[in-house]
Amino acid sequence: MASTYDCAVPDQRTEGLAEAAKAVRAGRLVVLPTDTVYGIGCDAFSAPAVRNLLGAKQRGPDMPVPVLVGSWSTIDGLVLGVPKAARDLIEAFWPGGLSLVLPHAPSLKWDLGSTKGTVMLRMPLHPVALELLRDVGPMAVSSANVSGQPPAASAAEALEQLGEKVAVYLDGGPSGEPVASTIVDLTGDDPRVLREGAVKAADVSEVLGREVLPA
């Protein structure tokens, strides 16, 4: 049976984070608040858990699952190399609404979908999410909704859509305006904005000192 914890109540937050960490390590799914919308997440390195996540969303592997991290330094072990552009953007916008697409380290044993050798990484600006990520490590996290349905802006909305497919729901209150993260592709010679969201493309260009190309 799914459990929901109100993270505004200190005791429930402590218990909920412990239960969520236990669920992630056991290969189960959790719902967590982020600074954009609520996310459904699991251990990024558990292929069965990622398949369950895609199944819960009724989505195929053609749309790879992004990875959330709890610190700047975590990225070093996940990608083939961290270019200066990535460092500059991380320093400017992490934690926050900027996702970076980079070639992942070939030694990593994960299956996030049809990534073509890349991974999309973000560090969310939400204390509950960060605490969980710092405990369990990188998590594969997608929006907490069934594909085709509106993204969940609350734990209750996520529960209504995903139900018992998720072991633990961490309720961090309403997420506010559901603004998606901005996605910047750093896999080629020239950075490209694949999606403009919480961070303006002009701000990305200013940090990099060059005009960023649209997708």
From TrEMBL:
Record-linked Pfam families: Sua5_yciO_yrdC
Protein EC: 2.7.7.87
InterPro entries reported in the protein's UniProt record: DHBP_synth_RibB-like_a/b_dom (IPR017945), Sua5-like_dom (IPR006070), TC-AMP_synthase_SUA5 (IPR050156)
Domain YrdC-like, chain residue ranges per copy: 14-199
GO terms for cellular component: cytoplasm
SUPFAM superfamilies the record matches: YrdC/RibB
EC category name: transferase
Subcellular location field: Cytoplasm
Protein name: L-threonylcarbamoyladenylate synthase
